UniProtKB/TrEMBL annotation:
InterPro entries: F-box-like_dom_sf, Kelch-typ_b-propeller. Pfam families: Kelch_KLHDC2_KLHL20_DRC7. Transmembrane segments: none annotated. It comes from Prunus dulcis. SUPFAM superfamilies: F-box domain, Kelch motif. Keywords: Kelch repeat. This is Galactose oxidase/kelch repeat superfamily protein. It comes from the Eukaryota. The lineage of its organism: Eukaryota, Viridiplantae, Streptophyta, Embryophyta, Tracheophyta.
Length: 425
């Protein structure tokens, strides 16, 4: 019996390279590989020629891109035929090694109407079009034109707490239309505020944090709005967790997938400009804020990271592209930084202190900017197209003296800039 067993074992080793994994069907191996991080998949490819060929499959890497970037980005890239210029594996590597952007100034043909210069407006990519609404302009005026569901400070300096739903629809004859409806909510709702951060999560939920409330007090509370299926009713509830981000305004809150969000920067209680990173996931159980602690001096060029009035947008590859803003001396910026979420370990478990210079250099990367040089700006707005490869930046406050001079010494910009992620073909 022992001799038979040994003979059988040797036969198996000679035929299959010594590993029963060779018996697994290719589609089952694909399923297993998609459960692994990319580094593990690349290690698996080194096992033998068969596995190396399997892990070089364009079908596998398209699935990995879909897993890590989201189906919307992949479908948009396929529709644009951009992926035909590069295999999916190479495209994945190019995105992960992103080190520069190319800026284009977009201008209207002569004679066409364009939004007036403004700041603190909203900008969204809807049905392949940019939809811009509201914001502030010279003389402290706040606008209500749609080119924003802007709930902020009115001309008298008061703040609001009402909640509105805007429905965007596409018509063959009317084009894109926007209609507003005041949302019916329960007795519990956030207090009046402006300069808060907000983002949409999980399809029918919105998270807000902080802002400036009555009498100019900075707030540090977190609220979630849940919308009904018909979008006619909503329920606000507060997330009370310890620890939590300190009170602030002018920060960003960005959804990074599902119910996970990341908060960055802003202006704190002491009027100091911040650079801290906080993660929040409200999927199940008790929602919890987790802070990622790091030292600025360990980030190459990190002394310029603290900012308020910036934008933080999820781009192709699942990273955050942070641009613009201003420092504690109100010096405005025109730089571009990428925050690589995947480089941060155990973000949902406990507060993490990152001391490794190598890890921080991977987590934070300042991108080179070529092409048109945008003005330094703050309190602008940005959004990406469906692929996540193109970022649109509009408006904001820029340096310069108005004629006649604005009472606050501010200049509002009406420039539209296209920022392209540079991928090597």
């Amino acid at each position: 019996m022992a001799e038979t067993s040994t003979s059988s074992s040797n036969s198996f080793n000679n035929t299959n390279g010594g590993s029963p994994i060779s018996y697994i069907a290719q589609d089952h191996l694909f399923t297993i590989l998609l459960l692994l991080p990319v580094d593990s998949i690349l290690c698996f490819a080194m096992a033998c020629k068969k596995f190396r060929a399997l892990t070089a499959s364009d079908t596998l890497w398209e699935s990995i891109c879909r897993r890590d970037w989201g189906p919307k980005s992949v479908e948009a890239l396929k529709a644009s035929n951009f992926h035909h210029q590069l295999p999916w594996m190479r495209l994945y590597k190019q995105v992960s090694r992103l080190d520069s952007v190319y800026c284009h100034k977009l201008s209207n043909p002569d004679g066409e109407l364009a939004p007036s210069p403004r700041a603190s407006h909203s900008l969204n990519f809807v049905s392949d079009c940019l939809v811009l609404f509201g914001g502030g302009s010279e003389g402290g005026r706040h606008l209500d034109d749609t080119w924003v569901a802007y709930v902020g400070i009115n001309d008298n300096g008061s703040r609001h707490k009402d909640t509105w739903v805007g429905k965007v629809a596409c018509h063959e004859t009317l084009g894109i239309t926007l209609s507003w409806r005041l949302l019916v909510v329960g007795p519990d709702a956030p207090s009046q505020r402006g300069a808060h951060a907000a983002c949409c999560i999980d399809g029918r939920k919105m998270v807000i944090h902080g802002g400036i409330g009555l009498h100019g007090v900075r707030l540090g509370d977190t609220w979630v709005l849940e919308l009904s299926e018909n979008f006619r009713f909503g329920t606000w509830y507060e997330i009370v967790a310890h620890p939590c981000p300190p009170a602030r305004s002018g920060h960003t809150l960005t959804c990074i997938g599902g119910t996970r969000t990341v908060l960055f920067g802003g202006r704190g209680l002491g009027y100091d400009v911040l650079h801290d990173i906080w993660f929040l996931d409200i999927h199940k159980g008790q929602p919890k804020w987790v802070q990622i602690l790091y030292e600025l001096q360990n980030v190459p060029g990190g002394v310029s990271l603290p900012r308020v009035g910036h934008s933080a947008t999820l781009i192709l590859g699942g990273h955050l592209l942070i641009c613009g803003g201003e420092d504690s001396y109100r010096h405005r910026k025109n730089d571009f930084w990428v925050l690589d979420i995947s480089a941060v370990p155990s973000i949902t478990m406990q507060p993490t202190t990152l001391n490794s210079v190598q890890l921080l250099a991977k987590m934070w990367k300042r991108l080179k900017a070529n092409g048109y040089k945008p003005k330094c700006r703050s309190f602008h707005r940005a959004c990406t197209d469906n692929s996540g490869r193109y970022l649109f930046v509009f408006g904001g406050m820029v340096d310069g003296v108005l004629q006649p001079a604005d009472p606050a010494g501010l200049r509002f910009d009406g420039e539209l800039v296209l920022v392209e992620l540079v991928l090597q073909l």
